[in-house]
Amino acid sequence: MGDSFHEQLTEDSAFLRADSRLDTELVDKLILQLNRIYPQILTDKEATRFRNLDVPTGVRLGELLTHLQRKGDEACKEFYRALHLHVEEVYFSLPTRLRLRDNNFDPLAFPQSCQQRYVLNDRGPVFFLGCFSIAVGLALLYYYSEAKVSGGSHGLGMAALGLKKKAQEVLIWYSAEGLGK
Questions:
Q1: Cα dist. 144→48, 131, 137, 169 in Å?
Q2: Contact call for residues 27 and 61 (beta carbons, < 8 A)
Q3: Measuring CA to CA, how many Å separate 66 from each of 28, 40, 106, 121?
Q4: 162 secondary structure, DSSP code
């Protein structure tokens, strides 16, 4: 489970060479991905050599895998990323992926701490709607009971202090009109 990507690629190499799903086009996509995104892993000259159509695809793929293993663990990791991006069904059928899937571990996935959801409460949307309904009901009860007792809403005049000029004028006018009745 703690294998490096280099060790995993060594283990998966035989499977990748034998897999018929990796045709010329897909191998070229993998080579171009490594060359364009990570030119330090696969230079233009190396990419041209591995994309030579005169050489059979299986041989080119074998040479590419050997080259990546020589480059180190980071190159092997980026190969797995490119394989996952372009040929997902092959990626998930690799012997090391099957073993890791059985152990519920994927080193390319985000750490578990980044995947957890941040939930403020676990009571759900019905609880939220219930609380919101109670708050709206209390606000309406306060508004209408205050209007009956005092003839207007003094709270509106105080609420106008933090608003823009037009809204402030409307609320102050409304509260003053209610007092005059």
A1: 80, 20, 11, 21
A2: yes
A3: 16, 16, 23, 52
A4: G
Q: Where are the alpha helices (DSSP H) in the chain?
A: 5-18, 24-37, 44-50, 57-71, 73-86, 88-92, 95-102, 112-115, 125-150, 154-159, 165-180
Q: How many other C-beta atoms are found inside a 10 Å radius of the C-beta of residue 105?
A: 12
Contact 153, 174 (CB under 8 A): yes
Half-sphere exposure of 163 (CA within 13 A, CB side): 13
**pLDDT tens, residue by residue, 52-88:** 888 888 888 889 989 998 988 898 899 889 888 888 8
For residues 157 and 168, what is the distance between their CA atoms, to the nearest angstrom?
Answer: 8
Tokens at residue 27, please? 């191998």
pLDDT tens figures, 6-41: 888 888 888 888 887 888 888 888 898 889 988 888
Tokens of 159: 């609420």
- C-alpha distances in Å from residue 73, one per residue of 14, 57, 65, 88, 105: 18, 24, 12, 21, 18
